[in-house]
Every structure is written in structure tokens, then in C-alpha cells.
Design a protein that fits this description.
With about 190 residues, the chain is of the alpha/beta class. The chain has 9 helices and 7 strands; from the N terminus they run αβαβαβββαβαβαααα. The protein has 2 domains: about 130 residues, Response regulator (Rossmann fold), CATH 3.40.50.2300; about 40 residues, Homeodomain-like (Arc Repressor Mutant, subunit A), CATH 1.10.10.60. A 5-stranded parallel sheet has the order 2-1-3-6-7, with helices on both faces. The chain has a two-stranded antiparallel sheet with strand order 4-5. Strand 1, helix 2 and strand 2 form a beta-alpha-beta unit. Helix 3 runs parallel beside helix 4 and helix 7 packs across helix 8. The longest helix is centred in the C-terminal third of the chain and has 15 residues. The mean pLDDT is about 80. This is Acid tolerance regulatory protein ActR. It comes from Hoeflea halophila.
């Protein structure tokens, strides 16, 4: 009985339009998240690339979307922009393993309502999608490490230089190859 009550509360939080587009190039993660979101009452569409995400967004613009930032064929921000052009009330979450402040700001400017770093579980994604306007996310318990602060600064400069590696390396007084290695890695905790 408690499971039924929890499920009806989840369906109520979603609303009448339960369309959800998940865009991520990590196929196993995408399938797991898709099943978990279906169990919570969403009508899930999945896409593994920017091109597939754009096609599905144009065919049926969803009420909810979870979009990975970096995909094999491009940037997930393109999918966010396309969804936002077609439907202004879509609740979009950016999900990425390469989290940084600069891309979070860009995603929010394009219309994302939240930004989650991988690995995020289905409960975190659901909470972010169904959070009411004005409701605040919980503050993380642990502050950023020194490595993470350095990573954030590098990413901020990289975004300011319009993702130009050579210009970023020059501004940071860093060797270009060193910068490329740093950019290829996931964000430190």
C-alpha cells in the first residue's frame, strides 16, 4: 500500500504531460535511467546522440528532458536550445561527467532548470525534474576540493575563450598539451 501511495505522489508531481526525453551516449546508463523514470510515471523517449535528440525533440517536444552535456557527435546544449525554441515550458536538466561552473551557467542561460554531475541516480534526477519553482536544492555537505576549484577555474577560462584550447592555454600560462590532458579528464571531486 505504501508503494502505491508513493507512486501516486510521483505521478501527481509529474502532472498530466509526462513526456520525457533522455539524451546520453552512455547506453547502459541511458537504459537504466529510462526504466527508472518509466517506473515513476514518465513516458520516456531515449536518444544516444545530438542528431537523434534533435530529431526526437522536433517530432514530439517533451515536457521534461535530461540531456548529457558532452555527446559523441557534439554538444548537448544544441538539444537544449532546440527544445527551448519549440516549447518554453519544458523542464530541462543537464547531466554531465564534466561538470563545471561555466557550462552550468551556459546551460541555465539556454533554459535548463538544473545541472547534475554524474553519477546521478534516478532519485536525484526525479527530484530535480519535479522540483517546484522557487524550491531550493539541498546544499552539498562537502566543499569543493582544491583540485576541483582549479578545474572550475580552467573550465571558466576555457568557456570565456569560446572553447579555444590554444587561447585558453595562453591565458592560463600553461602548455597546450597539458591543458588538453586536463580537459579530457573528468572533473575531480
Amino acid at each position: 500500500m505504501t508503494g502505491e501511495i508513493a507512486q501516486s505522489a510521483e505521478v501527481e508531481a509529474i502532472g498530466s504531460d509526462a513526456t520525457l526525453l533522455l539524451v546520453d551516449d552512455d547506453a547502459p546508463f541511458l537504459r537504466r535511467l529510462g526504466r527508472a523514470m518509466e517506473a515513476r510515471g514518465f513516458e520516456v523517449e531515449i536518444a544516444e546522440s545530438v542528431a537523434e535528440g534533435l530529431a526526437k525533440a522536433h517530432a514530439r517536444t517533451p515536457k521534461y528532458a535530461v540531456v548529457d552535456m558532452r555527446l559523441q557527435d557534439g554538444n548537448g546544449l544544441d538539444v537544449i536550445e532546440a527544445i527551448r525554441e519549440r516549447r518554453g515550458d519544458t523542464r530541462i536538466i543537464v547531466l554531465t561527467g564534466y561538470g563545471n561552473i561555466a557550462t552550468a551557467v551556459t546551460a541555465v542561460k539556454l533554459g535548463a532548470i538544473d545541472y547534475l554531475a554524474k553519477p546521478a541516480d534516478a532519485d536525484e534526477v526525479f527530484a530535480a525534474l519535479t522540483r517546484k519553482p522557487g524550491e531550493r536544492a539541498e546544499v552539498p555537505e562537502n566543499p569543493m576540493s582544491a583540485d576541483r576549484v582549479r578545474w572550475e577555474h580552467i573550465q571558466r577560462v576555457y568557456e570565456m575563450c569560446e572553447r579555444n584550447v590554444s587561447e585558453t592555454a595562453r591565458r592560463l600560462n600553461m602548455h597546450r598539451r597539458t591543458l588538453q590532458r586536463i580537459l579530457a579528464k573528468r572533473a575531480p571531486r
